[in-house]
Amino acid sequence: MHHQLLALLLLLTAAVGAVAVARRFRLPSMLAYLAIGMVLGPHGAAFLDESSQVETFAEFGVVFLMFSIGLEFSLQRLKAMRSLVFGYGSAQLALTTLGTLLVTWFGYGQGWKAGLAVGLAVAMSSTAIVAKMLSERFELHSRSGRMTMGVLLFQDIAVVPCLILIPALARPEGDMLRQLGLASLQAAVLLVILIWVGQRLMKRLFDAVAHHRSEELFVLATLWIVVGLAWATGQAGLSLALGAFVGGMLISETVYRHQVEADIRPFRDVLLGLFFVTVGMLLDVGFVLDHFWRLLLAVVLLVVGKGIVVLLITLAARASLDTALRTSAQLAQGGEFGLVLIQLAFVQKLIREDVFQVTLAAMLISMFLAPFLIERAARLGGEMARGDWAHKAKAIYEVATNAFAMENHVILCGYGRTGEQIGKFLAAEKIPFLALDIDPQAVKRAIPEGGKVVFGGADRIEVLKAAGLMRAQAVVIAYPDTQSAERVLRVVRQHRADIPVIVRAPDDTDVDRLKRAGATEVIPEVLEGSLMIAAETLTQLGVPMERAIERVRLVREARYASMREFYKGTTENAK
Hints:
With 575 residues, the protein is mostly helical. It folds into three domains: 50-386, Na+/H+ antiporter like fold (Up-down Bundle), CATH 1.20.1530; 389-510, Rossmann fold (3-Layer(aba) Sandwich); 520-575, no CATH class. The chain has 26 helices and six strands. It has helices spanning 2-24, 29-40, 52-72, 75-80, 82-108, 112-123, 127-136, 143-169, 176-211, 215-235, 240-252, 257-282, 285-290, 292-316, 321-331, 336-347, 353-386, 389-403, 417-428, 440-443, 461-466, 482-495, 511-516, 525-540, 545-559, 564-574; strands spanning 410-413, 433-437, 451-455, 474-477, 501-505, 521-524. Helix 3 (52-72) packs across helix 7 (127-136), helix 3 (52-72) runs antiparallel to helix 12 and helix 5 (82-108) packs antiparallel against helix 14. It is globular and about 80 Å long.
């Protein structure tokens, strides 16, 4: 007991330190967990031992992740994605498996059964890594995000026949088709029952739970659904994560979706971290060093080969080059289900031990590399999109045409809800403005007199110059995320050091960063919203309106340098 408690304390200490370092250098926390498993596991310092209990808890990390992803994908959305899931996903799995089979069979002389087993394992990508990164980067519903999730969902479904196929490969060939047919039928029947029954019972269940107004009961009910559906699919020979995903989709159809997501997040993050620790424990550093060049070739074949397959399929689906690049990077790694399949193939004696070790190490290394590849591909994809000359020429021509007669106008970067309100204020004062946005829906919004909205990326100097940057009297950056705002800000400052630039920020955390980048003033939405709420609260509590407004003015006087004299004067007059 004391030994287990010490191991838990060591694990938590390492997790706190490693995650803090990862966050400090803006690296994904999953890399910290992988490093912990590698350093403290049986192939490192041997402080942590593999056990069935640890592996079970770690597997539930993926279960809770798939549940939370299910909350993002309703049944209607999944129906709309069916071509991506069953068309694009099946093409990726089939071509990757076929390519790996040919390389293993003819290149390494392993036989077609071994090649098929290795191909199925390698074809799987990491739902845990990719889904978490897409969620953190708010890219789940981007074009590349939808294509990637379609493939991952198909892979999760395909795990079922794969778990039947690999043991069947070790048996006489006559039993293979019969077992696959039975497994597919069993999976289809169970999923239809779960969805049909769940659609009718899920809302009623949560309505009854919510009626008791107990947070404890609500959390318990959520956990019961996650574990219960995972158990049901597990008993049927399906993956636990598939049942959890179905549960998430069913709950996404109810009004309780956001509360469930908030309740489940702590369990998901902790257990998912434990999963990555156990993955890191599998990597034998000594083996990697002893077979470095052989492993390097295996990693290159896995990452590059799989990436090329996905790239070609995505381009064949008529996606843009930057979307294809992002999607290929998001899928060019091994996955947690692939680790299960390669271990099963080794247990069934379909592959030799050296093949198992090389494939396992290559898959784990590719999982280590995945966050860096995804980040790099996102940047390179953006550069490619900006370098698309046909698109660039058309966009710049349209922007220049709309800005041709404008002088002393305001360039408004981003025409969402905030940008639209700013545009109304400018129009009311007869100040012309040109808004730039890359959302086609924003361009279609109603535009007040004196303003124009055109399609274009404000982080490109060609677009800004076409919008009349050298003639404009001010720039307003109304993007919801700090990274995009900072990118535009730096481009503006490189060519107009004198122009006032007002930047929208979600909160106070990035104000200094944006100021250093050259912002004339940064307006945190959280601050302004809290000021209005505080003033209204004081008024409702009987505090005179003049005194409530005065307190708001005092805060603004201290916060906004350019308006300090105004607020100072109005405050003195109020006294």
